[in-house]
Amino acid sequence: MKLVVRLPNWVGDACMALPAMTALAERGVGLHLIGKGWAGDLLAAHEWPITRLPVGIGPAAAAVRALGIPRGLLFTNSFGSALQWRLGGVRSVGYRRECRTLLLGRGVPRPSGGHEVEAFWRLAQEVAIWLALPPLSAKPPATLGLRLTDAHRAAAAEALRAVGVHSSYVVVCPLAAGTIRGRSKIWPGFSALVRVLNERGLPVVACPGPGEDAECAAAVPGARLLPGLALGAYAAICARALVTVANDSGPMHLAAAVDAPVIGVFGVSDPQRTRPWSPLGRTVGGASGWPNVAAVVAALDTVL
C-alpha cells in the first residue's frame, strides 16, 4: 500500500509532520514524499523516497502522475497543491480550505486551536481510517523523532572544529521568515544575550541559511558563524549543543525534532500552536509581547 505525500513548504512544519508520517510508515504504508529541495537532506535518515517538487502546476502534476500512486496526503493547505495532486490522478486526504474540497478524496474539517503537530496527526488519523489501517492513538507522541545520518554528524563536527569550538556551546537562531499581522517574528535581544553568554565563557554559534550571512552576523556579533550547512548538519549541531535559543522559526523546530534542549522566544505568535514539541522544549514570551533579556537568561539558567 503506497501513499504520495505533499510535504509542507516550511522546514518547521515538515519537522512537525514527522510523527504523522512515521506512524503511517509503521503501519506498512509505503510513503513517497514530494517537497522542496531541502527535504532530501533533512529526511535522509528516514529512507523514504523523495521527489523534488517541480515549479508550476503542470510540471508538479506530471511528476505526481509519473509515480503511479493513486492515493495521497496533503499536508499543505493551498488550492494549488490540491489541484496539482488531482490533475496528477491522485485522490488525497487534506483539510478543507479555499474551495478545494471537491479536489480532495477525503476532505477533513480543520480543528480549531491545538498545536500544529496535532493538526498533522489528525490528517494521519484520517488516512488510517481511509486505508483501513490500525488506528492511530488519540494524541501524537511527545517527540518528533527526526533521525540523523553519520554524514550529518560528521559535517557538524567538522564545522565546529573549523571555528575552534571543541567543548560545550550554545546555538542561537536570531532570524525568522515572515511576519504575524505585520509584526516581525525576530526577537530584538539576541545581541545582548550573546554578550551575556560570552561573558560567562560559553562559545555561541549560529548557522545562517543561504544568503543570510551578513544579516546573521549583524544580529549576533560575538557569535561564531557556521555558514553553508545543510539542514541535517544544522540539526546535528543543535543535537550536540547545551541548548538552542531560537525565534518561532524552522531552526526552533529543528532543535526540538532531535529532542535537544531548546528555548523558543515568542513575541507575536501563539506558543500553544507552535511551541517546541519536545519534553526538553521551553518557551519565553507570548503573542502579547517579547520577553526581556533577563527573562530569557533566567530560562537559560534553568537548562544550563
Task: Describe what you observe in this structure.
This protein is an alpha/beta fold and 304 residues long. The chain has two domains: 2-130, 3-Layer(aba) Sandwich (Rossmann fold); 150-303, Rossmann fold. It is 38% helix and 18% strand. It has helices spanning 11-16, 18-26, 39-42, 57-67, 79-87, 116-130, 150-162, 190-199, 213-219, 231-240, 250-257, 271-274, 293-303; strands spanning 2-6, 30-35, 50-52, 71-74, 91-95, 106-108, 170-173, 179-180, 183-184, 204-206, 224-225, 243-247, 262-266, 281-285. The strands form three sheets. It has a six-stranded parallel β-sheet, with helices on both faces. Strands 11-10-7-12-13-14 form a six-stranded parallel β-sheet, sandwiched between helices. Strands 8-9 form a two-stranded antiparallel sheet. Strand 12 (243-247), helix 11 and strand 13 form a beta-alpha-beta unit. Helix 2 runs parallel beside helix 6, helix 4 (57-67) crosses helix 5 and helix 10 crosses helix 11 (250-257). The radius of gyration is 20 Å and the shape is globular. It starts with a strand and ends with a helix. The model has no long low-confidence stretch (mean pLDDT 96).
